[in-house]
Every structure is written in C-alpha cells, then in structure tokens.
Write the structure tokens for this entry.
Amino acid sequence: MKDGRPRRDGPRHEPTARVEAWFASRGWAPFEYQRTVWAAHDDGDSGLIHVATGMGKTLAAAGGPVIQALTAGGADPQPPSASRTPGPGAGKGGVKLLWVTPLRALARDTVQSLQAFLVGVGLGWTVELRTGDVSSSVKGRQRRSPPDVLVTTPESLSLLLSYPEKGRTFGGLETVVVDEWHELLGGKRGTQTELGLSHLRAMRPDLRVWGLSATLGNLDQALKVLLGPEGGGRLVAGPPGGEVVVETLVPDTVIRFPWSGHLGLRLLPQVLEELERGGTSLLFTNTRAQAELWHQALLDARPQWSEVVALHHGSISAEARKSAEQGLSDGTLRCVVCTSSLDLGVDFQPVDRVLQVGSPKGVGRLLQRAGRSGHRPGAKRRVVCVPTHALELLEFAAARAAVEEGEVEPREAPTGPLDVLAQHVVTLALAGGISAEAVYQEARSTWSFRGLSREAWGWVLDFVVRGGPALQAYPRYRRLVMEDDDRLVPAGPAVTRSHRQAVGTIADEGTLSVRFLKGRRLGSVEEAFLSRLRPGDRFLFSGRVLELVRVKDMVAYVRRATRSGRTTVPRWAGGRLPLSSHLARWVAAGLAGDPRIQGPELDALEPLLDLQRRWSRLPGPERLVVEVARSREGHHAFLFTFLGRLAHEGLGALLAWRLSQIEPRTVGVALNDYGIELLSPDPFPEEASAWRSLLDPAGLEEDLPACLNAAEMARRRFRQIARVSGLVHPGPPGRSRSTKNLQASSGLLYDVLARYDPDNLLVDQAHREVLERELEATRLRDGLGALAQRELTVTHPPRFTPLAFPIWAERLQSQVSSESWLQRVQRMAESLEAAAGNPEAATGNPGAAAGKLRASATSVRGGEVGPDAD
Amino acid sequence: MRIDLGGEEVVLLPAGGALLPGHRALLVADLHLGKGAAFRAAGRAVPAGTSGETLERLSALLRAAPRDTDLWILGDLFHSPSGVTPELAGRWRGWREENPSTALHLVHGNHDRTLLDVAREWGCQVLAPPTRLGSLTLRHIPRERFDAGLADPGVAGHLHPVVRLREGRRSGFRLPCFWLRGPDLVLPALGAFVDGARLRAERDDRVFVPAGDQVLEVPPAQLPSSSRTG
C-alpha cells in the first residue's frame, strides 16, 4: 500500500462513511467482523471468513474492494441512481473484483446483491455474470471489454484462463472472493480453484483472495488450501448465528427392531401438523428419491396444497428449481421438499421452520440446514428432525449434543489429483502457450500440489504432450506440443475446441433428459434407472406420476400417467452418505450413557437399549462389543465399531480376508454405519484375544488392497479421472459426427491402460482414490488404532439384538428384491418382538425365524434382477 | 457349441467367431482396427497395442479353423479414417503374411463407409449387405426382431452384445456373447478396444457365452430381460 493514503478508520474517512451510510439506510449497522475484514483488505491481506448463512458475508467480502475503489476516486459524483449505465472508470483496466461461486443459481443472486450494494454506495462498477448459461456473444464481449466485477464458477474461471485475452481480463485484478469455499474445498472443484488462483497470483502478485465458508472443523487447513501453504492470511470469524435448537418428532411407540426402508412416512401426520402451524417450511431429505416420495405423500394427504408445496432437487429442471426458489423468496409457498440442493447459500428469505427427514449424517450439515431458518441475529434456528429409523433418534440426540459443544466435521482437500493438474496444464496452454516450468512453480505454490515431485510433473507433461511416458506406446498422439523444451502450445485448433468443451471436474453420471412429448423438459434421471423401464411403465419424478413413452437420442419422452398401477421412484447414485466420524463418536457415547446426550429421544429408545443390555451389552467409546450367534443361515458375528459405512466396507472385507487366511472359509459381510455382520458356515472365534488380532491395525496397508476387489472399484472410480484428464469427452453421445467416433467407456479405457501402460499414474490415482475416498483408509487406520484401546467383550445373545437386527436386514436387502425383503424383515421383526416380550421364548435359537424365512426366499433368488440399493 | 440356423450348422467359437463348416467360412464382426490411433490423433491418450491384439485374436481363430477357410468380416473392420495410419497398414501386412492364402470378404458396416477403397487395397472383397452365403444372409446391422420370419435366418454384428451374469445381487460379470435375436445371430465384437452393449433378451432369444475353451448357452432364467422384474 502506498504511503499517504487516506486513513480508512478515521471518523472522516469518506468511503467507509458512505458504506456505513448505505448500511444505515437499510436499517443495519456493520458487524464488527465486517469492519475487521474491510481493514484487513485495506492492509493488503487475504484470508478466510467463516460465518453462518445470512450474516452479511457477501458485504463483508465486497466491502473491502468497494472501499478501496471509492478511496481511489471511482465514485459517482452524483448521488446513486438505479441506472445500469456504467459510471466513470467502468470497463477500463479489466476485472477488478472476481467472485467465484460453486453454483450458477448462486451466481445470479450474487450479481443482484452486488449491484444493489454498488449502486447504493455510488460506485459505478459494472457487474456481470460469466457461467455456462451465458450466451457466447456475451462471453466474447466480456473478453474484449471485461466488466469491473465478474461473478463466475470455478469451471468458467478455468475457461477464462484458456483465452489469449486473459491478460486484458485479469491484468488489473485486485481481489478474488471465493464463496462457499467449504463446498468446493473437499473435492476436485476445489483443486481446480486452487490451481486457477495460483495462476492469477502469478499474474498479479499483490492479489488479495478472500474465502467465505461455513464453520468447519479444520478452518486453519481450509485457509491454507485457499491461499497456499505459504500464503499466510487471516481467519475472521463472524458472529455466532444464533442458538440452534434441535428437536425431534418422537413416535408414540418405538419399535425395538428397527430397519430402514419405509422412509419415515409413518410420521407423516406429525409432519403435517408441523406444516399446518403456518409460515414457510423446508423439508430436507437425504436422497432425491426420498424427496419425491415425501412430496407425493404430502400432496396425497393434503390435495389442496398442490399450489403451495414444491419440490427442489438436483435432477429436476432448472426452471422448476428456480420457481421453487422464487416461491421461497416471495413467501408464497408453505413447504419445499428438498435435498442438499438447498444446502448451498441460494439466497432467499429465512423460512419459519426446517424439518430434517432421516439422519443428517453430520453435524455440519445439520447446522447448515438449521441455518435456513431465523436469519435475524440472535434469533433461534430451529430444526425439527423426523426419524426414519429408531436408531436415528439416538443420532439426533447425539447431533444436538455435538451442536451444543460446537463440534463440526473437518473437510479434507484431495491431495495432488494429477487428472486435475493435467487438465489445468492444457487449459493454460490454450491461451497462446505457456511455460511448463512456470506452471510447475505455480502448482507447487498450492496446498494440493505442494509436494509435487519432478517425476510426477514429468509424467503429467508426458501425458499431455506424448500421451504417456513410453514414446512408442502412444504413436501419433496429438494434444500439446512442447517447443524449445519449455513452451507448451496446443497441437491444433481441434484440441482447443474440444478441451474448452471439457473443462471441469464434475463427473457426468450418464443421465438422460426427461421431457414431455410436447417438449417441456422436466429434468434428468440416471440412465441406469431408465434402462430398467419399458414404455408404459410409471415412475414418480419431478413431483408427478409419469408414464414412459419412449427413449430416443438420450431423451426419455413421458406423458402424465392416467391409468393406475405400480409406480417406481428413480434411484440416483450417491444417496448413501456415511455417518461422519464425529457424529459416530457421539452416537457411541450416547449408547454408553454419556450424560451430555439426553432428551426425549433417549427416553423413547430406552426399551430398545434395555433389550440390548439384557441380551448382550451396550457398546460405547470405551467398549467394543462382538456378538457371536448361530442361526440356520450359519454363524454370525456382529461387531459394533462405529466407523461409518465406508470405513466398514473396508473393515468388513479385511476381517473376512484375515479370517480366511487363518483357515480357508467363506465369509459374507454386511454393514451399516454402526457395525458389521460377518456370516459364515463355520464358527467364529469366541476369545477376545482372537478378535483383537483380527482387528490389529498393523499390516492394514498390505492387507486392504489384497482383500478387496480393488481393481473393480478403481475401474469404476476411473470414470471421473478419465473425464477430467481428457481421456473421455463429456458431451452427450451422438451429438456430432466428429465426436461420435471418439466414444469409449471409462471402464474400457481403464482396462486398456491397465493392460498396455500399467505404470500409468492415472490408474495409480484411481487406486489411491478408492482407498482414501471410497474406503476411507485413513479413517479405518485411525479407527483400528482407537479400537485397540477399547475393552473388547464377546457376547452370545440368544437372538439378534436390536443393534444387530438392522445390519442383518441390510444384508438381506442386498440379496433379494425389495418386495420379498419387506415381507421377510417384517416377519423377522415380529418374531423377535414376540421373543423380547416373552423372556421364555428368548432362550430359543435366534435363527428359528430366519431359517424359515430363508426357505421362502430361495424361490426368488435365481436370475434375480432387483433394483440396486439406493 | 453347435447350433442349427435355418438348416445350416453353425459352430460358435469361444474366441468370438462363428464357423460354418458347410461353407468353410469363419464369420467375425466389429474389429474396429485403428480405434486407439483415432483417439490419440484427437488428443485422448490411449496406448498403442489394441489393434495388434485384435489381429492376434483373428490369427488364433484362423489357426483353429480347418485349412482353406475363408474369412468373412461382417462389418466395421475399421474404426475411422484417422485411425488408418501407416503403422496399422504395416501391422496388417504382417498379419497378411502370416495368413497369405485366406480369402477375405468384408460385408461393410457403418464405420467402413468411407474406407471401402482401403479395404480393397488391403485385399478384401468388399460386399454390400445383405450378402448371401448358402441359406444364410450376412449383414452388419441386424434386422429388427420381426422384420423377417425365422425362415430367412442370417448372421450380423454391430450390436457388440455383452451379457451381465449375476451371482446373487452384488457381484456379476460381463461377457461378450452370441445373441440369437429374431432372425439374426448377432456375433460378439472381436476388437480389443470395443465397448460392449448390455443386451436385453426377449422371449425366444438365446444367448451363448464363452466359458474357458467352450461356449455355453445361458439359461433363459439367467438372462436380463426387458420385461419388468423386481
């Protein structure tokens, strides 16, 4: 900063006074943290602001650059007007403030609030949007004459860096704001943003970067990922968002043998009662299928609400989503049934109440959803939880305790994904060539690639220039050309064109667009779901019962269903979130009677807990319980390890493998967030010491890849990697003749690479991602370390215990079709319930009921093509 | 596995070809030679080796066939013009030297359309579909199920059929297969760099998969059908 600049904190500092006056005109006063950010920005600092939704984060981040511009004399001499004509100083010197946001919907809202702010303080800056939705003529004009403020997404930022005009666009850039950084941070879009920022910093060494984030368990790391390990920066906390009250609709009777699957509709009457209390409500569900079902159930129960109950999830058309968002802003809707699609800060008026159906699986998510209500400072944020499963009562009580203690999950950034780096190198090279060494240095300045070795970098260069390391393995490869040992340029205009279409890291899930015969688009569903339907079949989608007419050119044509019949609900991938380790710890503590976890939920659960105590033991943070039982299905062992679904997948496979190493045997595995079931025709060890050695963390790294079908998992994982690195093109198949010949599935590419270039680092990356992201190997390693500290008790319950039963039911569900599964689980639950109520029956064989059920199931096994688990 | 197709004996080979002993003919489909090179030319880093592997498979089929067997390729010998490189031409010449006396017939497919002269240059007799061989018609694109009565049986390619066989519900594996579908026997794709398309069987369809050194018929109950289930 120059000496002699006006002091912004003095009482007569005019620009700050203008900003404060604008706040006052709206009946507000700046929060202290906003002033802190403005002052830090003025000092040339970067940083991360963490603040609850609705606490003025946009103005906190925008205020600094605005005050700076006003100080530099960019203000209109005249009082502000709402005119959109650019004021003095506009359009010269390129973009001054770049605003990066994860969602297009968010981008629109941001443009509006920034415009209102700028007009209000009389700064004649132009604000424009640059996302995939913007027409190409506007994009072209923006490159020739950039606006002062550009609001964009990580993908569009990358695209802007691929044009030779990037020097004009960003040559005068002062500040970058990254909105919703916590959303970007945990995935490859975050890595893409890191790399984009590193290039902007190289262009503008004094660049200030401010992130906006919800509260996270690892804010220090989030700051380092944003600014680079050497980037310094300040962490600024906003005001606490007001007390969060977590309440639960406790059912009148709690079944002792809980199982998931009925989606909580049992509590529909109580939910209706909540909604009838007036005002606007958000009903959050965890899956899109669940949202469709609840939406339909609400309308079936209250047909008169058809105009005031809306649906919002990621697969319905943008138009339908926008209309739901508009309805929330206007306050004309009574209820919107939604998924995580409304977790992000799409701006609308706070609602009167938030309901959460099913476990939120994490404390952070529950807080974020609760934050959708009562945005006034100091106002209580209330979230009403609707259990879909008896044990979720415990999760709600545990989440409340975690909220009270202020514990939120961390989000980890991916480490060094080479597919993203490869894409980034090509992107930069398109803008008239780039120095390879400069890109290496920029990448090394980011958190994700701080440890990037020369060898790995050399591989990436080979990948984009030669296709792979061995020169003759990739003859006639054309993508980038290396000139003078350092300068990377595109091999031809076709490379430039096709790469620009492919920039981004969001994996295409293979979806078909759903349209009415008359042409209106309703949204998209996964190909895997639609491929199971035949013309005439009915399904619930976008809040309507639809009948499939035909599928043509990646479009499913539908009409409103008229005749009655069986209706299915689309199943979308990725519905099953694992319980976060934080929440899992609290749940285990709750079982063990931790006094911090209490409430009506636990009172209602008491009969279940009591039975668990009577038939076995209650597991907890200090005690690992292994239940060994026998049924006509074979020998069962249930371990309540509380590591979450993903880590349990690895642990289950590990235990099965280690058991079979001791002596050859077949072991089946089932799991949920709480524990694992092992099933075998042979008996399991009964001594605690044997289980201790099976759970030994030593040797995990070697055993884990050996015991899993890691190759098959990596093959699936390769889909995103192939897409990001440019091996497959994201466009819809058959869009144009020129790309039609270049379609290949990522699975086929994986096979070909693994066979003809086995040292390919992208194949290696797929394996690492499977271990870290899908099996949570780190969590498993830490978890095994913690389990070794627990007391281990082996019990022999007379029947399946209330904690074991849901895992058993889960296994059954993976084996049989949904209808027979429902019947069998219901019958089993009834028989166990009878045994629980009648202590004498409880001495019988736990498998008596299961054995009978099993006989009835064999008839549905062979050649069964059931729906995949959601 | 031997089946009867309109009175002709057809032997299904586990390596993915069909032998007509009565005509000394070996039928294959969908080689897609040069596909990897076409990808590389467009900046998709697919390693070399797949076309060589495809020709290897072809040689193995011919070695196992009786002497003086003709080769009939039911379309998509090539993938696209950008894949027809000097390297591929060289590899083809090498393959030809190994199999100098085999007569080559190409019933051309959609991918061959602009490459018919190359095919002729490479020694193929180029034929437009449908072509008759005994009582069978040979074509690239199979007919719709009810386009012709079963009285006019044929052999075709184009669909690259694979079948997913399930064990229980979680696991399962995909196998390229022969698919008897309406009037036409659809051959599996022979190419090493070719995606399969999962078939959906209808009533009366029959599906055959390679199992080690033999070919087995998949019991109809095991077939993923296009009728609604579970």
